[in-house]
Amino acid sequence: MLLSNILGFIIALLLWPIAKTWRYHYYLFDGHNTREIKKKKELPPARVFALLHGEQLPLLIFNPCKHLAAICSKSKDGEIAARVLKLLSVKPIRGSSHHGGQEALEKAAEYVKEGGELAITVDGPRGPRGTCKRGVVLIAKAGAVPIQPVVARAQSCRHLHSWDRFMIPRPFSRLNIIYGPLLQPNKEAQDEEIFALCQEIAATLQKMEELAL
User: Fold this and answer.
1) Does residue 45 surpass a pLDDT of 80?
2) Count of domains observed in the chain
3) Of 24, 27, 25, whose CA–CA distance to 180 is shortest?
4) Domain range holding 100?
């Protein structure tokens, strides 16, 4: 625990001065086209943000939410990630599909139901990249809140040699952040409808990634 806290602090300390040089540009995607927005108040009131693994860094460092939480695993790496999240003023909710998943889903649903916001990597924890697993829909359904797809693209960055091609923007890079349309799960949705919404989220994220280049 102590080592994880120290490593998390060092990572956050190294990231912050670099992140301060990034130039953010925000866009809204209506399902067909994008338009740039200048003020955060133009963003629709979403509670659950669906993003792809590997794009977490720029999306979590400067997020427009007041009470953002994110799900991270109960592994040793997750312990370090949780410490980094806390230093970035993001509440960690511990659990994954392999360990403590149901508990994490229940905590996340309760958190958004009470007014908090949640960022969740829909293709985590191990991919395949670009897919959307049912967790994000179950949370939004239980919390009775909409889902908003979000993507990030850096004009200059480094990608790690991992399955998610984790993105680390270089100093002074321009970052294009695109927020998609709100998608509201049916409160009575069963397996077939949940699967269809997952497919729609994945397709929307793919199209947004193409537009963000």
Assistant:
1) no
2) 1
3) 27
4) 2-212
